[in-house]
Design goal:
Layout lengths: L1 E6 L2 E4 L4 E9 L4 E9 L6 E6 L5 E3 L7 E6 L4 E6 L8 E9 L2 E4 L3 E6 L1
Parallel strand pairs: 2-11
Antiparallel strand pairs: 1-3, 3-8, 4-5, 4-9, 5-6, 7-8, 9-10, 9-11
Length: 115
Amino acid sequence: QVQLVESGGGLVQAGGSLRLSCAASGSIFNMGTMTWYRQAPGERRELVAAITSGGTPNYADFAKGRFTISRDNAKNTMDLQMTSLKVEDTAKYYCKVIVGNASYWGQGTQVTVSS
């Protein structure tokens, strides 16, 4: 089993920054791609950014130029640095990890951006 814990969410004004973290523990041998998703109330969950085990990032269009994804394979962590936050970035942010043939999700961390 794999456990994921997200942290770093909170309330921030538009234009501000937040750094989200996802810590993985458990049976995480050979962890694959790690991904951030988000889901706003009444909306579908959407991909924010992903990073392969080799460190190659991929971003949703809305995240390009504002968000930076990173990971530390030695610590089994993944971060998402978010800058120039907008009200429409308000959502619950989730991390997902692929280990072998299975994927695991965290419980999410709330990000609220006020105008």
